[in-house]
Amino acid sequence: MSSSTTYAASVAYPQPVVAALAVSHLGTRSVTWRVALFAGEYVEPAREGDEGAAGASAREGEDEGRAAEAALSGFTLADVQSPHAGGGAGRRVRLVRPAAGDGEPRAAAYGEAVHVFVDEESRRPVTELEEGMRRALLRLVVE
Hints:
Helices cover 21% and strands 29% of the residues. By secondary structure, it is α+β, with helices and mostly antiparallel strands. It has one domain (2-138): Roll (Thiol Ester Dehydrase, Chain A). Strands 1, 2, 3, 4, 5 and 6 form a 6-stranded antiparallel β-sheet that branches. Residues 50-86 have low confidence and may be disordered.
């Protein structure tokens, strides 16, 4: 296993973090993971019957989706939920946009890790990945 991380900005509790994961190389018995962490912010839910908020939220979500797609270039994002009861569990999170500049979210930290799969009994590298694992990892491959 080898890994590297570059820290570009700070993120501090209780601010939520959005994690992105991709596979940059899939070998016969190894995978190279790409990981990025982005500063997030909680999204206030639209109130029922508040059409203005719902409309603005939908447009805002579309804009953020395009910005996140451009910034992540191949990373797969999922909604993040806080694990702390009462501290935001189940609340929606979006990427924080920079105060100045081009407006695209920037990673607070990013890196890479190489993972070699080993046989459980022999503790030696496998000869090749199981087909189910390979199919699952292929869904995360980016160029």
